[in-house]
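Reviewers of the previous submission asked for a worked example of the structure-prediction workflow described in the proposal, so we include one complete record here. The input consisted solely of the amino acid sequence. No template or homolog information was supplied to the procedure at any stage.
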Amino acid sequence: MTDEHARGASSGLDAARRALRELVMAATVRIHRAGVGYAIEEPGTFLGSGFFVAPNWVLTCAHVARAGEGDEVTVVYETGPGRGGAAVAGTVAATIPEHAEGAPRGNWPAPDLALVQLREPVDHDCVYVSERPAAYYGEGRVFYAGWTVMDGRLQVLDGPLSVQGTLGGWSSGVQMRLGQNDLPPGVSGGPLIDPVRGEVIGVLKSRSDRGSGGTSTGIEQLRALSVPRDGIRSEHGDLYQAVFHAHDRYHRDRQRHPDSDHLTWADVQSELQARPGRALSPDERIQLLGRLADLPPPTSTRSLLDILESLPDLPGAIPQPAPRGWRDGLGALYEGARQDGGLELVLDYAMQVMAADRPFESPGTGEAEQALWEWVRQSSEGLGLRYRRSLAQRRIELLRPRHPSGPAPLPRPRHDPPDLVPGAQGGPPNGPGPSSHHDPSRVGLEEANALGRVPRPCALLELVQRGWEPDRCDWRISVARPDGEVVRLDEAERVSLDALPGPLAPPLAEAFRQCDQPGRPAVLQVALPRTLLGLAVDTWQLRAADAPLGAERPVVVRCADRDRLLDDYGPPEKDPADAEEERREREARWRWIHAHDAQPELLDCDDGLRIPVPALSRLRGLPHGAVPILCRYGDQRFEDDGVALARIVHGGFGVALWRRWRGQRDAVCGEFHRGAGDTVAGAGSAERLPELVHELRAGLRAGRAETYWADGIALLYDDPHRPLPGSDDLLEAP
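From that input alone, the workflow returned the following structure tokens.
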């Protein structure tokens, strides 16, 4: 290598190290006492450091998290370089060990780890956590990041450290002894980073009482988190699996994000020329881990060990603490394999994962298995014909019926109606189905009774935007009875949109009183013009002490000016037959998705890239079971949001799901895609969607991390057989 080439390589590594530092600093947070309010810059409320390991999850030390009052803390994170800090409430979800009985005040026994769950969803950066134990770390230098108080101000800092040995042995309870740099007060809980591989390997635990340095805990000690005694019934039933599945999906989705201006962890690891074993590049590892995280976790640690011990090329000892998740098993391959994680060994492991018993099934499990197989198939293309044939044969064997070892999938609706398909020849143009004598354009209360789906009374709120005063509206509140009668309770004119929901509170409370049943809050239907379909009605609080409406009851929106869509978005020369055709299409779609499984159709986002909603002709060509999903409502990159939703409504869809986009350019949306798709697919009939969306909103209100992907979710649920009352008695424009 010439001197010029050497200087170029050195310069590239320096740039990669600077980029790695920026990634670490962006994810490093500080922990404060709960309820600090505007005092987040006050050093007296500061407890220590931490870092984001997964969306809405912070890892820190137990002695930091428990230094406040009870289980509550405040997490302060940087929203961007030079943008200042933002505060969000957090709850200590778990500590290891659970108690510090007998320990001196301010100390906590090893491993001294705590996971803090944010009480509300926020967008932020996450570190990349190593999947191999820190005991295998072989380099002599690491670097750290954390917060401290300097000159009376809170400041973030970082620096290098040397590894001077371990405490607790190489097999369990590993702590690294660190030296050759001072660790100031406050950095406990911050990340410890391997600068060669570009990954977090530990958590700073303590500073030395004598001299420089201190200790850190290997991040693999999180494997000691308690395991559910009755088995794993869902991913979020096991805290360890929930956090690391979210971690791996985050980095996979971030790598796929084509609209980001920032380097990812995999990008930086590639520039550092790091490789997780000889078999995988950083990007290949990210993609594989993301696919593994889409699958249900192992049924137990023992079942995972059985898989690892069955691999013929893995003679080495299994690392301790024992692997617990699919990512841990992959990390074990790097260390124990004769070929340092040879590709065939990795592919054999992936095939074993596909064949493993499942503790539960989710609507996306089959698709996740197919995605993992596609990765295996593509990765094996250079490994020889005989090996590729063996993989294909094993895949065929896996396609045979297999039953999960855990609970059954999501239940279907209690009253599954018989197949009702439009047309005398059996089925809509894009969906097969048996023939039916039912007319798709007619259904009444008698038929609904016969199907076991008797309509329940519901509250109806109608808003009419005044064209000459777009910031004001007329409103009307009614009770819609099961027999189709709509009883008006109250109405008003020229109300400022900004003043809502204040004047609506009394009549809405009365409507709910007339419709609610014990344990079954009535649905609130909100009829909105297409320009207001994004109005966040579900976040309204009728009284200051109340929960948001969407957390208290199902809240759905309807399109109040559907009949005008042909005027705005129809052909230049309108044909009266178009309106009749749209009505029939709408009713046919409605009947189909209430008699068969609904199918999610993501329309406006492709791996994080905003794309236009398809043209009307393509929308009408979607299967009758399709439920449109919009990820980027509010990201007006191509067209006004009202136009996109109007096109969906005009296409004959009475059910659609979207979220109100908050506009963060680098926000990762893979969890929304996954969660929304599983919700629609797992609902069976679309009849369950209002209640499922209500449960998600209630989960957000309760701070359940598994629902954070649904922040801002909205549901169009517009029954063509329960028409809205006419608006001729509302004020007309002069």
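DSSP finds 19 helices and 23 strands in the chain. We consider this example representative of the routine output the project will generate in years two and three.
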